[in-house]
Amino acid sequence: MSQEPDPEVQGAPVTARNWQDPPGNRWAYWHVAELLPAYVVPSGDGPPRALPPAAPAAEDGGRLLAVPVTRADQSAGPGSASTVGEVLADTYTDAYLVLQDGELVTEWYGPLGAPDRPHALMSVSKSVVGCVAAVLADRGQLDIDREITAYVPELAASGYAGALVRHVLDMRSGVRFLEEYANPDSDIRRLDEWVGWQPGDGEPRGLYLFLATLHAEAPHGSRFLYRSAESDVLGWVCERAAGRPMADLIAELIWAPMGAGHDAGLLHDGLGTAVHDGGLCATARDAARFGQMVLDGGLVPDGTGGVRRVVPPQWLRRAWAVDSDARAAFAASPAEWAFPGGWYRHQFWFRPGDYGDVLLGLGIHGQMLHVSRRTNTVCVKFSSWPQAQNPAYLEDTLRAFDAVGGFLAGQEPRDPGRRRLAGVVSGLSRSGDTAPPRRPTVV
Prior knowledge:
By secondary structure, this protein is of the alpha+beta class. It has helices at residues 7-10, 25-28, 32-35, 57-65, 84-90, 124-138, 148-151, 165-169, 187-195, 207-211, 228-242, 246-258, 284-295, 313-320, 324-331, 391-409; strands at 38-41, 68-70, 81-83, 93-100, 103-109, 119-120, 264-267, 280-282, 299-301, 307-309, 343-345, 348-353, 356-363, 367-372, 377-383. The chain has 16 helices and 15 strands. The radius of gyration is 20 Å and the shape is globular.
């Protein structure tokens, strides 16, 4: 599997200003906390959740790479025959890991990575923050039907006035925010600038000050549109509801209880504000432990033959069981072309796959958590794509992980060969429109 050389060997300096640019991002995503300010998210004093090896792990791992996949990648020819191994090799994979039935089937790390080394999760972080909100709601500390400004009055003059917590939880507010990574003038790039403020750049900005500048363009609850600002507002609300910083909340409510094996890192803006929308850095095994906890309905082994609850099961059941309102909002959004028949709930993506519905955590530059209830598999992929978004890489990876789950479960696909090239990554159309463009004849 091809890997770019370490940029230190190349002599290319990697800094806080260029850490996401290729080829330096391949090194930087394994060393983010060395480049940017970050909090430690402790794993706690308890033993990590065991990931026993599947038998025979080595044989299955090798066989998985040979599982056939029909590619969507135009460079390989649309609909071309390929394998899981070729997809992983062609999509700038830094690490991957597969669990089935809670057992470790296979894992692989490039020369820059290791099982104990955290990697940037990007927007997979949103799903962890969503689970923090779930626990706080279950404890009665957070009311998702309450207005956001009841917790964060600093947003009273912003577009979030009148929005409920549930609106940002499901990305249903009416706030205008363009998530166009290729557009230097888009809101996501402005957010990066405010978060990336450094001494000497002028007057301090910061993430929370940025959120207060956003305006509404639609009634709250009337639409779904993927926007990182929604997760940042949700994180701010959680901190205020609990009276604790997000790093502590993740550690105490999710990371330690689920049995993480290593401390995580959580980036902040230099002023102390956590980057809720994409600042978490964790090992592949701990990302898989999080996915397994979600797959098991929020429950984890307690070490004595029983289980303990981390996330309320009913919260995850509601997310999996899509209703007509969530489906209709998703179907009217640009995201429908990436995941036809899908939905978005509680900071998770859901996509109908060849082997049943799949829960996804997705991050730019190719980070993925893939959870399949029908095949009882959890797949993790860390990547360093040269582009923030690549629809063909995304679709090929989804097909590969679908195929892995089907192979391990010994199942036949429900409707093979009908997946379409993803025209949307993280809620955007290929042209970056904020309203659904006309349906193309070929996607």
